[in-house]
Amino acid sequence: MSLAARRPDTPAPAERCVPGFDDLERGWLRNRSGVKWHRVDPTVLPSWVADMDYPIPTVVADALHHVIAAGDLGYPDWPDGSPLRPIFAQRMASRYGWHASASRVREQTDLIQCLQLILHLATSPGEAVAVQTPNYPPFLATLKTMQRPAVHVPMVDTDDGWRMDMAALSDDVARRGCKVLLLVNPHNPTGRVLTRDELNEIAAIARRHDLLVISDEIHSELTYSPNEHIPFASLSPDAAARTVTITSATKAFNLAGLRCTVTHYGPDRLLAIRDAQPPDLYGTVSNLSVVGTRAAWLEADAWQKDLITVLDRNRRRVHDVLHHHVPALRHRLPEATYLTWIDTGQPQAVDGPAQHVLRHGGVLLDGGEAFGPRAGAYLRLNFATSADVLEEILDGVVAALAPLRKC
């Protein structure tokens, strides 16, 4: 029996259905070639990698179809950089009051490439990088591969929710001689959105220790009211001058496969070093990726508004189900993203909590081990799917983890 049948406060399917988001056909999902659904066994429900299950915005699909139908796939005419540069600047100003300079924007294929390029240009092997943990595993893997020692700044689960350990940041930056702070805000995986006071405290530490701040803000447009995203570079002239902001339309519009990210360079010297590199050494974005991103940022806000409504409903559903059916778990309602971070309290479970849920619940979640120290007891759940699929995911998670209530 499903959770929907067990709980009288669950809305009827017709009442909760949002067309385009809740009418997903299982066969369509299973036939997708993306890693999220393609990699799992047909008996398993995927709720792991950070892809949404929804179709892309119609305006984005139409823009891509138009280019292909017109055969317009020749070399693009972008003598001053792609058209995304002024569009990004305009979007930052209208959404956040941050007057970013279009002339400081550069394009890369994805966020990981952005990070790797910046670290390559701004640091040397052996130089330490401060980073919140838990954190996005490819970021941590990048630091290890590039031999930039990670200085772990804990995100702490307090009575008031997740908080960044500011004292540890200040002390460890000084003790380890960090050159860079990798700041993820909104935070993946906890879903925390840092407040202006917190960001100002971080900015003061960065100024005191002369840190380059690499600010990953890719989840900024997936922030739930009343929380507010504040670009780090918008805090002050000093913050702007030391911050490299990396972001993309890929998370907020479900376009990861287009491979298009923008980077805003605050430091003059770093931008000059970047522009002195051979122009194609680090690759260039495709015409289609720019067309898709442009359509998303200029024409898909109505779609995104519906998306936020659905995700807000889903995050609350996950929180309510876990609270009522597995009260032994520790879980915070995420303030942003479509990912939620679950403390099972069971790091010693056979093969880890993720394998336990897969074996006993038929649901694939991300296990916490790759997210950094002290994360082995955690699970990351992706709730960007239809109401019906989410119910089945929660059925499996509850079936696997409900015995924890007895612990």
List the helices and strands and how they pair.
Elements: H1 3-6, H2 13-16, H3 26-30, H4 35-38, E1 45-46, H5 58-69, H6 84-96, E2 105-108, H7 111-122, E3 129-133, H8 137-145, E4 150-158, E5 161-164, H9 166-176, E6 180-184, H10 196-209, E7 212-216, H11 237-242, E8 243-247, H12 250-253, E9 261-265, H13 268-275, H14 287-299, H15 301-325, E10 330-331, E11 339-343, H16 353-361, E12 363-364, E13 366-367, E14 378-382, H17 387-401
Parallel strand pairs: 1-12, 3-4, 3-6, 6-7, 7-8
Antiparallel strand pairs: 2-9, 4-5, 8-9, 10-11, 11-14, 13-14
Helix pairs in contact: 5-14, 6-14, 9-10, 15-17, 16-17
Summarize the structure.
The protein is built from 17 helices and 14 strands. It is an alpha/beta fold.
- CATH class category of the largest domain: Alpha Beta
The CATH superfamily label of the largest domain reads Type I PLP-dependent aspartate aminotransferase-like (Major domain)
Strand content: 5-15%
Distance between the termini: 24 Å
Return residue spans where pLDDT drops below 50 for at least 5 consecutive residues. Answer: 4-8
Radius of gyration: 21 Å
CATH topology (level 3) name of the largest domain: Aspartate Aminotransferase, domain 2
Structural class: alpha/beta
Question: Can you tell me the CATH architecture of the largest domain?
Answer: 3-Layer(aba) Sandwich
Instruction: Kindly report the spatial arrangement of strands forming the biggest sheet.
Output: 2-9-8-7-6-3-4-5
Sheet having the most strands: 8 strands, mixed
InterPro entries: Aminotransferase_I/II_large (IPR004839), Class-II_PLP-Dep_Aminotrans (IPR051798), PyrdxlP-dep_Trfase (IPR015424), PyrdxlP-dep_Trfase_major (IPR015421), PyrdxlP-dep_Trfase_small (IPR015422)
GO molecular function: cysteine-S-conjugate beta-lyase activity; pyridoxal phosphate binding; transaminase activity
Keywords: Aminotransferase, Lyase, Pyridoxal phosphate, Transferase
Cofactor: pyridoxal 5'-phosphate
